[in-house]
Design a protein that fits this description.
alpha+beta, Phosphorylase Kinase, domain 1, Aminoglycoside 3'-phosphotransferase, Chain: A, domain 2, five-stranded antiparallel sheet
Length: 247
């Protein structure tokens, strides 16, 4: 990491609590501005993170200031105060309704939702609880998609932060190219925003209604992705409750 600090002329500060995606550090640039140095753990879901941030160019998302693809390192705009959306006393769904259309830009060059769905099936989705339901939904949904836009397939209440440049900015994209209806899946199952049948259906109904999305397609995508992401997750019981409510 020393070479990154030297090349980008950074002064190292405290490390953020580590997560599964990698390590992140508070840093200062040579001009004194605050930033974040993120060193990723390589993973296929986030290998195009820098590309997505470049495509959004700070419009609703944190700005990418520099990248080193060989070191899997990103220099990012720092969000201050950095409060998680999930922890704020605001209209959470309203924030997502405002942000999502800004993220739905052209997605040429990105891994597709169709390819991702096929990988879930190849990795054994059918063997999971309700796995046959998920596979059946994917076989119906994938071929009939609408316009392909850039999606953040892990957009939940802890991947949106309070910032100074804008009230809320999206972080940590796991980008895909797919139809808009898929975008609501991680928000609907975002248990930190409230975990009950009423909460999940409220988020589904309001997101699809206010964004003009097909509710049944959004429900299907949410069921399928939630089952696919439950494997090996510490949230498996919570995710499966959401699936049961949506079924």
């Amino acid at each position: 990491m020393e070479d990154l600090l030297e090349r980008w002329q950074l002064t190292l500060g405290d490390e953020y609590p580590s997560g599964a995606a990698g390590r992140a550090f508070r840093v200062r640039r040579a001009d004194g501005t605050a930033a974040v140095l993120k060193v990723q753990n390589p993973h296929r879901e986030s290998e195009q993170e820098a590309d997505a941030l470049e495509r959004w160019a700070g419009d609703g998302a944190v700005k990418l200031l520099a990248r080193d693809d060989t070191r899997h390192a990103l220099l990012l705009e720092r969000c201050e105060p950095g409060t998680f959306l999930a922890d704020a006393r605001v209209d959470h769904v309203g924030v997502f309704v405002a942000l999502l259309p800004r993220l739905w830009v052209g997605a040429d060059g990105f891994q597709t939702l169709a390819e991702e769905a096929e990988s879930w099936i190849e990795l054994g989705l059918g063997r999971a609880r309700h796995g046959n339901v998920a596979v059946g939904l994917l076989r119906e949904l994938v071929p009939m998609q609408g316009e392909q836009v850039l999606l953040h397939q892990d957009l939940h209440g802890h991947n949106v932060l309070a910032a100074e440049r804008e009230p809320w900015l999206v972080i940590d994209p796991k980008p895909l190219a797919g139809e808009r209806e898929f975008a609501v899946a991680p928000i609907v199952r975002s248990c930190e925003l409230g975990h009950s049948r009423r909460d999940a259906l409220y988020r589904l109904d309001r997101l699809t209604g206010e964004l003009g999305l097909d509710r049944e397609r959004a429900r299907g995508w949410t069921i399928a992705q939630t089952i696919a992401w439950s494997g090996g997750s510490e949230y498996i019981a919570t995710h499966m409750e959401t699936v049961e409510w949506l079924l």
